[in-house]
Amino acid sequence: MVIRAALCMLLIAAAVPAQWKRYSESDEPGAVDSPPAHDLRYFRVDPCSRNDEKERFGYCEPDGETQRWARTRTNLRTVGKIGDFTIYDLEYFLDIGYPGPHLRSVLVETPGHLFHEIYLQESLSGVIFPTEILKAGQQPVIKVKWDDNGNCHIVYEKYFVILGDVAALLSFGPAIRAAEKALPRGKRTYQPMSEFNLKSLVYSIGTERVDAIGQKVACCDGHISVPFRIEEGLVVAGKAEFVSGYFSGFDQ
Length: 252
Description:
Elements: H1 2-15, E1 22-25, E2 31-33, H2 40-43, H3 66-70, E3 73-82, E4 85-93, E5 103-109, E6 115-122, E7 127-136, E8 139-147, E9 155-163, E10 166-169, H4 173-181, E11 187-197, E12 202-209, H5 215-218, E13 222-231, E14 234-237, E15 241-244
Parallel strand pairs: 1-6
Antiparallel strand pairs: 1-2, 3-4, 4-5, 5-6, 7-8, 8-9, 9-10, 11-12, 12-13, 13-14, 13-15
C-alpha cells in the first residue's frame, strides 16, 4: 500500500505542469509570483496601470497619478531566441524628471504568441544592463544584470534557462557556498569582484583580510575559483580553490 501510494503521488506530480514564475525586485526584498501570460499590449503601459492590481509594480499611489502613468514610455528590444521562445527586454521610462530606463521587464514569447513576464526590475538610481543570451557549454542561459550605482557598485545578476515549456531561475548558491567554505582563516570575499564565467564554467570572487579598512580600497589579495556545471536546471559545484596574490579583476 505504501509503495502504491508513493507511485500515485509521483504520477500526480508528473501530471502537474510546471509554472511560469515572475521575480520582481526594487528597493524592497524581491517577490515571486506566477501571473498568467498576456498579449504584448498588456505590458506596454506603466506597471501601475495594469488591469490586474496583483500584477502592478512600484509605488502605485491610489489617487492623482494616472496622468503621470499615462506619460510613461516603453522601448522593446529583442534579445534573441532559445528554441521556439523569443526573449525581449521591455524598458520603461517614467515621467520623473531624470533619464532612464527606470524599470526593465524581461518577457518570453511562447509559440502561441503570448508573453510571460519572468523578471521585473526597478532601478531608479542604479544602472540597468541589457539582457543577454549566453552559452554555458551547450546550455543557452538568459543573463539579467544591474548595478546599484552605490559606492561599492554591488552588481546583481540573475540567470534563467528554458526547461521544457517554462523559464526557470538558476541558483548559483552551491558555487557561492563552496567559495565561502574555501576561505582561509582571516579572509572574507568581496562581492563586487565576482564573476560567473559561463564560457569557462568557473565562478570566481576576490578575497581580502577581515580586518581590512575600507573594502573598496583593500581588495583584493587573492581570489577563489569554483568550477561548476549545469544539469537539468541545477548548478553543481566542483572543488573550490583559493589562489593567493594580488587580484585586480577578470579578463574581458
